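Lab notebook, bench 4. Still working through the backlog of constructs that have no structural model yet. Next entry is a single chain of 353 residues. Request: give me the structure tokens for it.
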Amino acid sequence: MRTVSELAQLVSGRVFGDGATIIHGIAAMEDAQNGEITFAENVRFLADAALSQASAILAPDTDLDSALANGGLSSKTLIQVANPRLAFAQLLDLFAPERYQTREIHRTVVTGSDFRHGANVSLGANCVFGENVRLGENVTIHPLVYLGDDVEIGDNTVVHPNVSLLRGTVIGANVIVHSGAVLGADGYGYLTTGGKHRKVPQIGNVAIGDDVEIGANVTIDRARTGTTRIGRGTKIDNLVHIGHNCEIGEDCLIVAQVGLAGGVETGKNVILAGQAGVKEQIKIGDYAVVAAQSGVFRDVPAKLHVSGYPARPHRVALKAAATANQVPELMKAFREMEKRVADLEAQLVARGE
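Model written out:
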């Protein structure tokens, strides 16, 4: 539990009302109860937040004085902040349920030779590690995780249950890997000769930068040679596939069910929205956005927003979609014109012209 004044200090906010109010939880305004704090992203939502059961509101720092003057908020304690959504996220982390804190190596863990780890690691039941595994300090490995030979994991990283990190995978510090993820499986490489598909050995690895989060059931293939890389700070949603030899830049957002073929390269701060697909060897520039369900077959320049199948500049795609919506009416008009021409021809034939 914290007082409103203590929470305000944590989010660099200014208190309006009773700073001694005790807060024991956090919730969206429609779910908030007495003793909890909620947020109003802008002034438009303040009235709804005022009607909630919340004891305090994270409020925007613009036009707040006029909103107070209009009444309706007098019964609520407010914390005025520059970015209520960011402050809400900060407090969510504060009020989150306690994470897995058992700091021990469970007796059922199986380790290969030359296993080394830093201080304060936690290894859950029935984990299996290969040869030459290296763990940093404060690493948490939940139960039923497999780490292959030569896997390295940096400080403060959390690996959730049923994750497989295969041979040679390198994970940075402060990384979260959610359940079911498989990092370092063979890339999809075959050579077809005489109607038969010969497997091409995949001898590279996967390297994950610091501060990355990898969602549930994500698959990231090892490189054919060299390294498949995920840049620092990138966040990957559930059910994403990243092919061999991809190079993902820093601070990218990759949303659910995105599929990247081998050799795709992205710059920093790229957004790949849900179900987007990217052809092999494509390059996507810094700050580019690929809209949901787009199919990318050509390189995307920096800062360009593309959409559609095939993907093209978003404005062009919108015009194409608008034109496509007019096709039924255009076809109807065309058929009417065809009929009129046919009738005129018949009349001319009847008159012998």
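Notes after review: Residues 2-95 form a domain with the Udp-n-acetylmuramoylalanyl-d-glutamate--2,6- Diaminopimelate Ligase; Chain: A, domain 1 fold (CATH 3.40.1390.10). The chain is about 20% helix and 25% strand. Flag for follow-up if needed.
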